Amino acid sequence: MTIAVGFEGSANKLGIGIVRDDGIVLANVRHTFVPPPGEGFLPRDTAKHHQQYVLSLLQQALTSASLKPADIDVICYTKGPGLGAPLVSAAVVARTVAQLWDKPMVAVNHCIGHIEMGRLITGAKDPVVLYVSGGNTQVIAYSMNKYRIFGETIDIAVGNVFDRLARVLNISNDPSPGYNIEQLAKRGTTLLELPYTVKGMDVAFTGIIGKLETLARTNKYTKEDLCFSLQETSFAMLVETTERAMAHTGATEVLIVGGVGCNKRLQEMMEVMVAERNGKLYATDERFCIDNGVMIAWAGLEMFRVGVVTPLRETWCTQRYRTDEVDVTWRD
Amino acid sequence: MADEFPWCLTIDVPFPTARLATIAYNTLVVDEEPKKSDVRKTLQLLQNDTVLSIHFAAREGRLLRSATQSMMNFLRLTIDTMLAFPDYAR
């Protein structure tokens, strides 16, 4: 039985996960850096957070899995994409324990982590993947050993619009700005017109945040309506591009991953489209949607099983690392 | 060339064993400064591999300060990790 530990710290969530090669999750612990309302998370503060919590989190993961370091077979960490100093903070501990415990390492692409764990948890086999978070927005499908990006944002991530609207409206970042926007949106009644920008398979969101900021400054609209309008408009754009990817690939499954994927309204809107096409929608809850260590452990374990090992000297991190750069050697 | 990087600092960190010094070296040597960076960083092991020696050279003082600060944080993190697993850090 092969057991992998995964370190994830590419954004404001620090997660450590332990998973067994039969797909059983043995530990999934996380600590989130939550900035005060009106503020975003800055790289330096986030790195400091990760450095402060990573060792207690690692002990917690080992304890909850009832494992000793000797029981671990491979150490996986997030290589990128993400914020430099926070990524390195997790990687430094991963490198150190790999040497202390004498274990091999596997460098994992963060986006691939989301996709592979989404497939593991939901059982989706060959889905069109909508990956939506604070830093990424991509429509992805697998073909010939690559996760190919069919469409993506050409400016900022959809979750970044949520984060920025929360700052403008002084909405709490606890537990996350997106969660609080979702709750406010439930009480929205009026749909305000926002720029709906779909260019072929790609989407753009700066027009939406610009318009929302303008509308917010007039003080004529409620927070509830602003949040509601953001969700309805941006999610419609994502459903449209996902539908086109389904039509193009002939896929019948859709898998939503990434932090924004927790949003019930997004899942509901996607479900309507997928049902009309007689397909099946797969999504996960906040334990797995939001960045976590299990996704890195599981993707790394899949890579390790087909012989991928990252030499210690090459265990660097990189802020830019596209989903389609990775050779997916573990899938047919 | 030397004049372009006038701000220098060397930090020598002694470890109880060559193994631990080597682990720290292997951990910290991976992250290189960006190619076009205004800071140069060199790591080496001295005194029978028991001392980790980190040398910085920077174009400006403030760059030297931030590079050093960042390195000290990661150095402390790798040492704290060793201390967290004493059975494996002999």
TrEMBL record, chain A:
<feature type="domain" description="Gcp-like">
    <location>
        <begin position="30"/>
        <end position="298"/>
    </location>
</feature>
<dbReference type="GO" id="GO:0005737">
    <property type="term" value="C:cytoplasm"/>
</dbReference>
<dbReference type="GO" id="GO:0002949">
    <property type="term" value="P:tRNA threonylcarbamoyladenosine modification"/>
</dbReference>
<dbReference type="GO" id="GO:0046872">
    <property type="term" value="F:metal ion binding"/>
</dbReference>
<keyword id="KW-0539">Nucleus</keyword>
<comment type="similarity">
    <text>Belongs to the KAE1 / TsaD family.</text>
</comment>
<feature type="binding site">
    <location>
        <position position="178"/>
    </location>
    <ligand>
        <name>substrate</name>
    </ligand>
</feature>
<keyword id="KW-0012">Acyltransferase</keyword>
<keyword id="KW-0479">Metal-binding</keyword>
<dbReference type="Pfam" id="PF00814">
    <property type="entry name" value="TsaD"/>
</dbReference>
<feature type="binding site">
    <location>
        <position position="291"/>
    </location>
    <ligand>
        <name>a divalent metal cation</name>
    </ligand>
</feature>
<dbReference type="InterPro" id="IPR000905">
    <property type="entry name" value="Gcp-like_dom"/>
</dbReference>
<feature type="binding site">
    <location>
        <begin position="131"/>
        <end position="135"/>
    </location>
    <ligand>
        <name>substrate</name>
    </ligand>
</feature>
<dbReference type="GO" id="GO:0005634">
    <property type="term" value="C:nucleus"/>
</dbReference>
<protein>
    <recommendedName>
        <fullName>N(6)-L-threonylcarbamoyladenine synthase</fullName>
        <ecNumber>2.3.1.234</ecNumber>
    </recommendedName>
</protein>
<feature type="binding site">
    <location>
        <position position="263"/>
    </location>
    <ligand>
        <name>substrate</name>
    </ligand>
</feature>
<keyword id="KW-0808">Transferase</keyword>
<feature type="binding site">
    <location>
        <position position="131"/>
    </location>
    <ligand>
        <name>a divalent metal cation</name>
    </ligand>
</feature>
<dbReference type="GO" id="GO:0000408">
    <property type="term" value="C:EKC/KEOPS complex"/>
</dbReference>
<dbReference type="GO" id="GO:0061711">
    <property type="term" value="F:tRNA N(6)-L-threonylcarbamoyladenine synthase activity"/>
</dbReference>
<feature type="binding site">
    <location>
        <position position="163"/>
    </location>
    <ligand>
        <name>substrate</name>
    </ligand>
</feature>
<dbReference type="InterPro" id="IPR034680">
    <property type="entry name" value="Kae1_archaea_euk"/>
</dbReference>
TrEMBL record, chain B:
<dbReference type="GO" id="GO:0070525">
    <property type="term" value="P:tRNA threonylcarbamoyladenosine metabolic process"/>
</dbReference>
<dbReference type="Pfam" id="PF09341">
    <property type="entry name" value="Pcc1"/>
</dbReference>
<dbReference type="GO" id="GO:0000408">
    <property type="term" value="C:EKC/KEOPS complex"/>
</dbReference>
<dbReference type="InterPro" id="IPR015419">
    <property type="entry name" value="CTAG/Pcc1"/>
</dbReference>
<comment type="similarity">
    <text>Belongs to the CTAG/PCC1 family.</text>
</comment>
<dbReference type="GO" id="GO:0005737">
    <property type="term" value="C:cytoplasm"/>
</dbReference>
<keyword id="KW-0963">Cytoplasm</keyword>
<keyword id="KW-0819">tRNA processing</keyword>
<keyword id="KW-0539">Nucleus</keyword>
<dbReference type="GO" id="GO:0008033">
    <property type="term" value="P:tRNA processing"/>
</dbReference>
<protein>
    <recommendedName>
        <fullName>Transcription factor Pcc1</fullName>
    </recommendedName>
</protein>
<dbReference type="GO" id="GO:0005634">
    <property type="term" value="C:nucleus"/>
</dbReference>
